[in-house]
């Protein structure tokens, strides 16, 4: 099946641009539209307990919207992502965005994370960012792809600001928190979404 138009279920312009760059790197020429482009303003209740469940809930909602409103597409793609800490049995996981409560300040969220790790007595502090993409083709065929960025949770926070957990996460191959990395290195290290999209592109090429 030939893919020409993809609906990416996000309103984040940065995510859309990243996806376009990955498509370009794979020498493809897909058109990518965001939720804003298709005037999707519905609230989606993400009540799944895994990244796979939440990304599928979002993908189904966007596909249904497109079908109902006769919006042209060849594939709908949505993602769910978060930080998983080994000694916390995968927490914050799917609750990464609301770990310390809805709209909690970054410092409050990171304090809860570090305090909970300290309580376990774990010294390795292994963790990973995970991104799961669920994609539906027009005919309902489902494609699930995944990417991981491994590392550890630091004891001393880096520069605050930016993505919530970046001041507390040291990626594999680095010795400083992600938030302290130069922009170019940050992009290389924070690559779980890129890996998931690369996995998706590889699967598309086999269709």
The CATH topology comes to Maf protein
Number of strands: 6
Number of domains: 1
Strand order of the largest sheet: 2-1-3-4-5-6
What percent of residues are in strands? 15-25%
- pLDDT below 50 for ≥5 consecutive residues: which ranges? none
The helicity comes to 25-40%
Instruction: Give the C-alpha Rg.
Output: 18 Å
Report on the biggest sheet.
6 strands, mixed
Q: Quote the distance from N terminus to C terminus.
A: 6 Å
Shape: globular
CATH architectural designation: Alpha-Beta Complex
> What is the highest CATH level, the class?
Alpha Beta
Structural class: alpha/beta
Whole-number average pLDDT? 94
Number of helices: 5
Order of helices and strands: EHEHEHEEEHH
Which properties best describe this structure?
single chain, 207 residues, alpha/beta, Maf protein, 6 strands, globular
Task: Summarize it.
With 207 residues, this protein is of the alpha/beta class. The chain has helices spanning 13-25, 51-68, 106-120, 183-189, 192-204, and strands at residues 5-8, 31-34, 75-85, 126-137, 142-153, 169-171.
What does this structure look like?
This protein is α/β, with parallel strands linked by helices. It is built from five helices and six strands, in the order βαβαβαβββαα. It has a single domain (5-204), classed as Maf protein, CATH 3.90.950. A six-stranded mixed sheet has the order 2-1-3-4-5-6. Helix 1 packs across helix 5.
């Amino acid at each position: 099946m030939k893919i020409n138009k993809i609906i990416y279920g996000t309103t984040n312009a940065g995510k859309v641009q990243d996806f376009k760059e990955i498509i370009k790197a794979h020498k493809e020429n897909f058109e990518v539209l965001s939720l804003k482009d298709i005037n999707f303003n519905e609230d989606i209740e993400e009540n799944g307990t895994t990244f796979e469940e939440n990304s599928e809930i979002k993908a189904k909602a966007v596909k249904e919207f497109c079908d109902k409103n006769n919006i042209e597409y060849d594939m709908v793609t949505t993602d769910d992502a978060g930080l998983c800490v080994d000694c916390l049995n995968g927490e914050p996981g799917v609750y990464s965005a609301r770990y310390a409560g809805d709209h909690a300040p970054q410092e409050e969220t990171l304090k809860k994370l570090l305090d909970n790790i300290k309580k376990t007595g774990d010294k390795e502090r292994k963790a990973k960012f995970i991104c799961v993409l669920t994609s539906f083709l027009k005919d309902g065929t489902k494609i699930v792809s995944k990417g991981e960025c491994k590392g550890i949770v630091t004891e001393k926070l880096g520069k605050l600001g930016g993505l919530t957990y970046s001041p507390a996460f040291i990626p594999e191959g680095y010795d400083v928190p992600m938030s302290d990395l130069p922009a170019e290195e940050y992009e290389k290290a924070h690559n779980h979404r890129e890996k998931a999209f690369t996995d998706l592109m590889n699967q598309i090429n086999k269709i």
